[in-house]
Amino acid sequence: MAMGEGGATKAGGIGLVSSELGKRVVSAIVLIPIALAAAYQGGWAFALFWLAAGIATAWEWTNMTRVESRRPVQAVLGVGLVVLTVLLLTNASFIAFVGVCALTLLAAALLATGQESRFWALTGFAYAVVITLVPPIVREHPNLGLAGLLWMFAVVWSTDIAAYFTGRSLGGPKLWPRVSPKKTWSGFCGGLLAAAIAGFLVAWSVQKLGLMPPFSLRNVVMLSLVASVASQLGDLGESALKRHFDVKDSSHLIPGHGGVMDRLDGFWAVALILSIVLLIIRFAS
User: Fold this and answer.
1) Which residues on neighbouring strands pair with residue 180, listed in sequence order?
2) Minimal CA–CA distance to 154: which of 65, 77, 227?
3) What are the φ and ψ backbone dihedral angles of 177, each rounded to 5 degrees?
4) Beta-carbon count within 10 A of 215 CB
5) Please, are residues 259 and 60 in contact by the beta-carbon 8 Å criterion?
6) What is the rounded distance in angstroms from the CA atom of residue 144 to the CA atom of residue 74?
């Protein structure tokens, strides 16, 4: 009897780990500490972490959208992202960034075969640039720094987790069944609530610890709600792209999550919003 119970327990444990949820949990346990450690370290380590994510994103995007002359295009996009990272770490001028982006886009357009492939190659580079550059920029920003980055992580992760479990528990009307048949309005609202709480807790904590000057917690909650909506729209946007190209996951790099794009689609949307805000502030000052 004892052996039977032990065998059942062992089999149950293996079943849990091999399930979709189990794989997601194991992947999160591995990846989250790495991301947080890199964020704490900052500098080259953090920039290289996001360079790897950006290159993987460009690779997945061009594979998923079936860009013709794929390998040369992927090589050019990867080199462009590497150069942009070096420029970031050496505090190069904004004009240098614009020049490298323009040259990379031109080279990708010349290498891609056909108008549709050119479009997807160029948009893939734009998508990957946000992933590659915005997190390190936020990390080194004097008014954001590690606290701003932790806020991004907290809002996106809490939105994702709460939407997943709230949607599965409560069910109800579907959010956008043609694009993502499993997502529900209850999950959407659960994600909003969790993001507001998580964003508030991060802001309140960093204020109490004296890591940032006082600022409006009400505004943080409002921004967290906006970021949560953006995160969920980013998720839906990638789902629409995958459905258009009839693929289940962007790749199989991350067990239980699919690819890097599948893991960072919501984070990308929040990073895009922050990049626009930072650009507006830069040119307005």
Assistant:
1) 176
2) 227
3) -60, -30
4) 12
5) yes
6) 32
114: three-class secondary structure by DSSP: coil
**pLDDT at 18 > cutoff 70:** no
What interhelical angle do 43-64 and 20-41 show, nearest 10? Answer: 140
Query: What CA–CA distance (Å, rounded) separates 219 from 234?
Result: 22
Cβ atoms of 23 and 255 within 8 Å: the answer is: yes
How many angstroms separate the Cα of 4 from the Cα of each of 1, 9, 10, 14, 15? 5, 8, 10, 15, 16
- What's at 11, amino acid-wise? A
* Residue 16: band (very low, low, confident or very high) from pLDDT cuts 50, 70, 90: very low
C-beta pairs of 277-280 under 8 Å, 24+ apart in sequence: 278/137, 278/141
DSSP 124: H
Q: Which pair of structure tokens corresponds to residue 64? A: 């998923």
What average pLDDT does range 238-247 have in this prediction?
Answer: 91
Q: Which of 84, 96, 79 is nearest to 136 (CA)?
A: 84
Determine contact, residues 87/100, Cβ cutoff 8 Å. Answer: yes
Coil, helix or strand for 82? helix
Check whether 5 has a pLDDT greater than 50. no
- 126-142 pLDDT, tens digit per residue, is 999 999 999 999 999 88
- Find the helix packing angle between 145-170 and 217-244, rounded to 10°: 60
Beta bridge partners of 258: 254
The stretches of 90-178 forming alpha helices (DSSP H) are 94-111, 115-140, 145-170
Q: In this predicted model, what pLDDT tens digit does every residue of 147-182 receive, in sequence order?
A: 899 999 999 999 999 999 999 899 889 988 888 888
Going by the DSSP 8-state scheme, the letter that residue 65 receives in this structure is T
Report the sign of the C-alpha dihedral through residues 50, 180, 247, 244, in that order: negative
- Length of the chain in residues, anyone? 285
Contact between 257 and 25 (Cβ < 8 Å): no
